[in-house]
Amino acid sequence: MKHLLNSLLLFLGLSWPIMGAHAAKTPDGARLYAQHCAACHGADGRGGVGVPLALPDFQAVASDDYFRTTIRMGRPGRVMPAFPQLSDAEIDAIIRHIRSWNPDVRPPRYDRTRIEGNPEHGRELYAKHCARCHGEHAQGGHGTGVTFSRPRELPIIAPALNNRGFLAAAPDAMIRETLRRGRSGTPMVSFLKQGLSEQDIDDIVAFIRSLEKEAARKARAREHGETPAILVEESSYGLEETVENVKAAIIGKNFRLIRVQYLEDGFFPPDQVNRRQVIVYFCNFNFLYDALAIDPRVGLFLPCRVTVVEREDGTVLVMSINPTRLSAVFNNEQLDEACDQMRQTYQEILEEATL
Ligand code: HEC
Ligand code: HEC
Description:
This protein has 355 residues and is an alpha+beta fold. The chain is built from 16 helices and 5 strands.
């Protein structure tokens, strides 16, 4: 599994902890940024799969501590990974590099004083002014980042505000400052200019803070939600019949059969290929389109496939990857939901083919 992860991440230009650079004497922030962040946030911080980091209005409200906590914890379920493997010195070097894009912006400092506000009133204001972009439950907008040519609701995705990583990183004062000031160059406007009062803004901050408990519960559920890497069923039929059953079950579920081949095709001369191991490839183009729109990286494990293997003792096994488990690599809650549906479909195909 680790090997698979490495290949996936390498493909994306990212790196897994064990392959990461070992702390140099003076970490090179530009190199570390290029290695760990640029694939998503863009080489110059203008955004990509991730939101822009170079915006002056963002850097003016984001403290160095905000960056540190965000990089350490990531945003569980929102694509932004956690980076536990980087040293403190490496993280600080990355932050210095990001800051170098805006030499005139003075990084703010905040304390963690709670802002007094009425969360119930904040909830009403949130529903009226924020939910259409940040989601009804503050779960964030759909799609990815900025520049992918995929369907998106906004030119820049609205971050999740009910997220444990965000809430841990952002003190109340920073959230307040963001609402007062807005971020020019993004759909996020100043809500003072929109006519909200200082008290209204504090009430919204209190509401956002009240989402913390639920965020912690959800993040824990993600961490403990381990599922098996592959789905396996033993067939009550022989190999040929099982393969036919798999094909029928796939078509019955509205998938297109792409091809059927021996597992070893291409690896050995044709007369030496093991004919007791068969792969069935299939696809549902609607699902494919939807999944790619959620996260283009799913292209790495498509099209769908089921493997049918006859063992030495004559028993026949039908297997597939578990999409739910693969999805976990991508840290994308929306993708988790789609992959969980996919897992159910796979499970049904396996059961129909073997029972
Ligand atoms: C028109 C869509 C839109 C509306 C309405 C909107 N936002 Fe935003 N918001 C965004 C976008 C897009 C960003 C990301 C900007 C960026 O890339 O820096 C954002 C950023 C933020 C951030 C910073 C999050 C982070 O991770 O840095 C906060 C906090 C926030 N919005 C809160 C609110 C609240 C509270 C409201 C309602 C009062 C609101 N927003 C209304 C689109 C919107
Ligand atoms: C796999 C893609 C990916 C990688 C790699 C990645 N990020 Fe992110 N990052 C995101 C996404 C997506 C978001 C927005 C989260 C949301 O929508 O809720 C984000 C959000 C952030 C934020 C919060 C921005 C804001 O407006 O408040 C910071 C800061 C950040 N990332 C820094 C980094 C740094 C530094 C690195 C490298 C060490 C990095 N990220 C690597 C995808 C990524």
